[in-house]
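If you are new to this repository, start here. Below is one unmodified record pulled from the training split, so you can see the exact layout before writing a loader.
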Amino acid sequence: MTYATFKKLRKSFFCISIFLGITVYFFGNTSNNKTDSLAQNYNLETTQETVATQENQLLEEETVATQENQLLEEKAVATQENQLLEEEAVATQENQLLEEEAVATEKTAKNPSRQELDIPLIQHPLIEKHLKEFQKPFSINWLKKVLERASPYRPYIRQQLKENNMPLCLEYLPVIESEFKINAKSRSGALGMWQFMENSIQPFLKKNEWIDERLDPWKSTDAAIKKLQDNYNWFKDWELALAAYNYGSGGISRLIKKHDNVNNYWYLVDKGVLTNQTENYVPKFLAIAEIITNEEYYGLDLPKINEEEILNWEEVTVTKSIPITLLAKEMGIDSSILEFLNPSLLRGRTPPATEYQLRVPMGTSESVALIIQEMELPTYEHTYKVVKGDTLWGISRRYGITVQDLCDANNISENGILSIGKILYVPIIK
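And here is the target side for that same chain:
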């Protein structure tokens, strides 16, 4: 190889080397740039993903926070509602209390306090039993009727109790004795408003074929007060005095003596030695007296009386047998007025051959005395015992009187049935 050729080859190789170096440099820089770009892109994407993740986390946290806030708000609203409900409940309770207080105040204003009976009311099961019983609607209606029936007699009873310095609640004893029916008759034969037995009327009342003063509400009231007073003076205890009125003072005295000599009605009750009637007699009476005395306290409205409205009358002394209906006709009044004032007359006429104090309306005694003086009346009366086959017409013909005279003398009707053995009074006019 020539030198010139070698120089050309060396020159070519140098050029190639330079070219390769430039190429390597160029491509090397390009590769690095790509690598850096990829890295940068990767880093960007990673950053973006991180940012997105963080944003999502923030969004989730915001959502959670929002939900928590909503829950808190809902709880706050619920709490407020509960508070309002509680406040309303409290207000309702307060209003109820105020209403109850108003009712109590109104009741207290009407009846500031319960009035104690002048025979003290004790705590006892029998009293509580009868107090509940007499406050039932049926019992209240019954009690109203009884007190309406009692209105003509209660002022007099109260007056007599005051004058004798006795417990005023005794005014209500006829409620359980007779329901204030002046002609009430028990199965045992007790009669009248105060239910006197025939064997216990002496020396308080009179009874014969013409009159029975057990039927007189005013005279029997005087007798009952005297008897109760005697019982109290003996036992020194009003419950025992009442029990003795029902059972008899002798019977109560024997029971006391037999059972430890304890002078206490409730002791005998708890011992179970009284009859069922006497055991309930005093508790029933006290329950009635309590309810009537404290009617407003128990929310009742019962018939009342005016103490000043005591029935007044005048009396005329009569010594003849005068038919009430005939006298009323002569006086120009209804016969029911004289019958009401003189309820003890059994035959509708005054008794013969004896003095009888006939009650007449106020202001009429003088005129009635003159009427009686001028009346043509029987001088005496004959008794006749009815036998089989007798008739009013036949008996009247036998004595020369009219059937009407015979009926008037015996307070019977012309169509009445004559029972064998009946005693008739025959008016003989001379």
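Two things worth knowing about this chain: The radius of gyration is 57 Å. Strands lie at 314-318, 356-360, 380-385, 423-428.
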